[in-house]
Amino acid sequence: MTPLEKAKNIADALPEGGLFHERSWRISPDAFAISGEFADELDHLGYRLVRFQQACNQLYYLSVKGKQPAWIADLLDRGKPRELIEFARNQQFRNDIPSVIRPDVILTDDGYVLAELDSVPGGIGLTAWLSSVYAGLGEDVLGGANGMLAGFSSVFSGGDIVVSDEASTYLPEMNWLAAELNAVENSPDRWRVTDASDRASFASQVYRFFELFDLANVPCSDSLMTAALSGEARVTAPFKPWMEEKMWFALFWLKPLEAFWRSELSERVFVALRKVIPYTWLVDPSPLPMHAVLPRLDAHSWDDVAAFSQKQRDFVLKVSGFHETAWGSRGVLMAADVPQTEWRDALNDALAAYPTHPHILQEFHKGRLIEQSWWNRDTDAVVTMKGRVRLCPYYFPNGERVKCAGALATICPADKKLLHGMEDAILVPTAVQ
Questions:
Q1: Domain limits at 23?
Q2: Separation CA 156–CA 205 (nearest Å)
Q3: Is the backbone of residue 18 left (phi > 0), alpha (psi -120 to 50) or beta?
Q4: Is the same domain home to 317 and 421?
């Protein structure tokens, strides 16, 4: 089969109506190839990230109980409704962490870095579909042809997938996912996708596919939380707003917390994560002592940082969480790409928002250039594009065993710095060479 024939076969295999609402991507005849060594590294990364999320959860509770500094929980609770915080702190949810973990992995010239860690990720159905189709064409897809379906099934044996209006773009892929799971398990009602309308009852197991900042716009949220509290329904991701904050990367780098991370993670996991979590700052307006500087910035104040030239601003500025711009690529500013006045205004806005919506500043690492073929429908030919890769491996923690169930590669044109799903991006599964 020629590359052009492969690309057309992949396009013909798309479910009716697609997998995303009114969104498309470039189709490649080839999966994104990685080495077996890097595939093993992605498996190890899953274990480390589960340990990291467990440690984050533990640190929050220790702060609440006064066994770690109180400012930690105070910072993570900012901007959240008091009733949600009290609900989330209920003892029966004490050890719950998200059952689906997806980091955004940027491949660089000397390895990789983690741009973010998502606990309510999209792309599950898409990656499952891509894995199945490309495996059928002979690709050695990471996780196998059914790895994503098996991984999702390992979270729950069946139940409701609740999708909010805010997340409706992903409704087609969730419908496809539920249909495939039901077909595999030979039970047409085992999985059910439902909107977020006001409902009186749920299945005993629920996959929450909406962000907690959007609770006020999710009519069924009160009844779902009541069902979770009574034990009638087990919900993942858990209603823990502190687990959905991006500031954990900043807390990971704070010197006063280093002993905790080393102890809780183990020295080996701590050192491994230090290599891939980019240095991150809390955009905290508190004045520094006269003899102090912001670490690695060699600046005494944020006013000094606001005066940085574009060459000095190799950073990303973004809101930490619990905000309508805190997911997808929204609310993200590439500091080096804007004029001085816009940079200063954005940083000042972030500082002013600290009491309710803390922001973070993160080192930016440019993705390495790769080449990937794709089908140009205008010329009806397979051509090559130079691009940069965001790799999204999916993990479904199940006991001590954490394996990568599949990985979505989003290959954006070389001139793009923010790597995310877009019409000009190539979306393919990841396969071992």
A1: 3-44+121-243+369-432
A2: 7
A3: left
A4: no
370, 387 contact by CB (below 8 A): yes
Question: How many domains, in total, are found in the chain?
Answer: 2
Please indicate, yes or no, whether residues 359 and 373 belong to a single structural domain of this protein: no
Contacts of 26 (CB under 8 A, 6+ apart): 374, 375, 385, 423, 424, 425, 426, 427
- 187 pLDDT tier (thresholds 50, 70, 90): low
Q: How many CA atoms lie within 13 A of 320 on its CB side?
A: 32
Residue 323 has pLDDT above 80, yes or no: no
Q: How far apart are CA 410 and CA 312, in angstroms?
A: 28
In whole angstroms, how large is the CA radius of gyration of the chain? Answer: 22
Amino acid (one-letter) located at 103: P
In a domain, 9, yes or no: yes
Domain boundary among 314, 333, 363: 363
- What is the three-class DSSP state of 173? helix
Q: Is 150 helix (H, G, I), strand (E, B) or coil?
A: helix
Q: Based on the domain organization, do 392 and 348 belong to the same domain? A: no
Threshold 0.90, pTM exceeds: yes
In the chain the first and final C-alpha atoms are separated, in Å, by 19
Flag whether 101 is in a domain. Answer: no
Q: Which tokens in the block code for residue 103?
A: 């980091």
Note the pLDDT of residue 119.
Answer: 85
DSSP 260-290: HHHHHH-HHHHHHHHTTSPPEEE---PPPPT
Give the number of residues written for the chain: 433
Write the pLDDT tens digit of every residue in 103-137. 999 999 999 999 999 988 989 999 999 999 999 99
**Shared-domain flag, residues 194 and 232:** yes
